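Researcher: I'd like a candidate sequence for this fold, 134 residues long. If you have to choose between options at a position, lean toward the conservative one.
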């Protein structure tokens, strides 16, 4: 089996806590507001751009396009352009995207399940902060 020293060197040095580590950019693309929602929206299967935009309520066309480009560049999303008239473009998850999205969906589920507790915690925090200020 061929030995790729450069690839191994990069793997060994990946440390998300290190300031210059490229893993930070990838992590930001995945976990940013629009990245996580775009990946989750693609979990149910391939979708065209406008269908994704409708699913991810509140995202602008520009932000969705930038998000999908970053996720495609990082290897999580596949862009399939079919040469029809008019051109038809579909987005889908790559195998890496599927693995990552499975974890993100678990996180989303936990956040949604725990929302009543989080809301109560926010209320108590805000009341305590108001009492300290007032």
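Model: Candidate sequence:
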């Amino acid at each position: 089996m061929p030995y790729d020293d450069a690839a191994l060197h990069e793997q060994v040095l990946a440390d998300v806590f290190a300031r210059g580590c490229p893993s930070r950019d990838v992590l930001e693309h995945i976990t940013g507001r629009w990245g996580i929602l775009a990946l989750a929206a693609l979990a149910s299967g391939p979708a065209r751009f406008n269908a994704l935009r409708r699913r991810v309520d509140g995202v602008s066309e520009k932000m969705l396009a930038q998000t999908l480009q970053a996720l495609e560049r990082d290897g999580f999303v596949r862009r399939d352009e079919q040469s029809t008239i008019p051109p038809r473009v579909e987005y889908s998850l790559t195998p890496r995207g599927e693995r990552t999205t499975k974890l993100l969906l678990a996180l989303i589920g936990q956040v949604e399940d725990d929302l009543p507790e989080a809301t109560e915690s926010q209320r108590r925090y805000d009341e305590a902060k108001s009492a300290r200020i007032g």
